[in-house]
Specification:
alpha+beta; 6-stranded antiparallel β-sheet; 7 helices; 193 residues; globular
Amino acid sequence: MTRTVTHLFDDYTLAQRAVTALEQAGFTSSEISLVSRYRDNGSLADDAISSTATAATVGGVAVGGAGLLAALGMIAIPGIGPLVAAGVLATTLTAAGAGTLVGGLIGALIDYGMSEEDAHVYSEAIRRGGSLVSVRADEARAAKAEQILRQQSPVDVTKRRQHYAKAGWSKYDSKAPGYTAEQIRTEREMYGR
């Protein structure tokens, strides 16, 4: 049976390290997905694409055998704006951008197998500058993926959901703009990261 293991990282560098560790453990680009608003140079994807772009694939997302980080492409999603993505989720998001999947990021995450409740939290976290790393593998390998991802200091999503709710958040709003670099820094200071 296939299982999906997903973790959120506040720091894009930790997400990159998680992907690298997964690849070194033998997971392939077809098993790993990465979605973020950050590019490899540490800048927000918004800097590379006008945030008014809607639902278009802006860069390539597939390079067989070159590793997931080499296959990163940029996708503009309605509401959240530009994302950097690779793997199965990138393909799903590209389909969402083409109008074949309702709900943009939320719809893509649900289609990927995430509960709607979790999809809202992960989408909100990405809007606020987080990075999502996900792995689809058989049960035994999924346990190994879980172990690898936990070693990279992921966010406790239950606590994050509680923090958001305490501040009045109830669900992801696709019309809310992505956080600016300054807003992301301010929020991370609250979490001590």
